[in-house]
Amino acid sequence: MGDTIVGVQFGIANPDDIIKRSVVEVTTDKTYQSGQPVPNGVFDSRFGVIENGKVCPTCKQTNQYCPGHFGH
Questions:
Q1: Would you kindly state where each structural domain of the chain is located, as residue ranges?
Q2: What is the DSSP code string of 5-34?
Q3: What backbone phi and psi angles, to 5 degrees, belong to 37?
Q4: How many Å apart are CA 67 and CA 19, to the nearest integer?
């Protein structure tokens, strides 16, 4: 038998932690240009990739294994 989970705790990240963990600063509301995610936009591929066969530039994993990444 596996271990039993006895609890889960959640909290709110403070602004400094958010900046430290951030991989992208969103500076534009543009999403796609010529079919590609706009750098520093809300779909910047550094957040993680959703397309099959693409590799996340942050963790070098495919969409199947990339956990997704934070931005600010």
A1: 13-72
A2: P------PPPHHHHHHH-SB-------EET
A3: -60, 135
A4: 18
Per-residue confidence band for 3, with pLDDT thresholds at 50, 70 and 90:
confident
Rounded CA separation 38/22 (Å): 17
pTM of the model: 0.78
Q: Is 71 exposed, middle or buried (0-12, 13-18, 19+ CB in 10 A)?
A: middle
Q: pLDDT tens digit string along 21-33?
A: 999 999 999 999 9
Give the rounded distance of the alpha carbon of 40 from its chain centre: 12
